[in-house]
Amino acid sequence: MTLNNTDLLNLSLEQTASTLGDPTNAVFELLYQRHPDLEAFRREDNQWQHYMIQEILQNLMEMAENPDTALAIIRDMTLHHQMIGLETDTFKGMYRALQDVIVAQLTGPHRDEMVGLWDGVVERICKNVDAAF
């Protein structure tokens, strides 16, 4: 059975939820390791982190169905984050950290397709962020 991008994305998120639960803490720990300058943003109340992951996952779902709209939203998000002082490499790093956390959870007969989808989507997002500047 062939799965479309939305199915593959949903399957990858389902597998992550079943093995890891909410990936937010794992994603941000990886992001803080890779971008120590973000430590200044770390708070006891990490609701903003959950909000960010939710926004990113919504953009990724849109990316699976309507890439042009998703990329426009991501360009706007990139500009907003740049205005508050976040480097573009750090912004792209969030997508890469999410990808690395998700891909590490993937198994089963559609694993290669899911990994390929994540690789392609995150690469396209990163190129879009670079093109915005």
Question: What's a quick, concise take on this entry?
Answer:
The protein has 133 residues and is mainly alpha-helical.
Task: Characterise the protein shown here.
There is one protein chain. This protein is an all-alpha fold and 133 residues long. It has six helices and no strands. The chain has helices at 5-19, 24-34, 47-65, 67-83, 88-103, 111-131. The radius of gyration is 15 Å and the shape is globular. The model has no long low-confidence stretch (mean pLDDT 88).
By DSSP (H or I, 4+ residues per run), the number of helices equals 6
Helix content: over 70%
Q: State mean pLDDT (0 to 100 scale).
A: 88
Query: What is the H-and-E element order?
Result: HHHHHH
Could you give a short account of the major beta sheet?
none
User: What would you call the structural class?
Assistant: mainly alpha
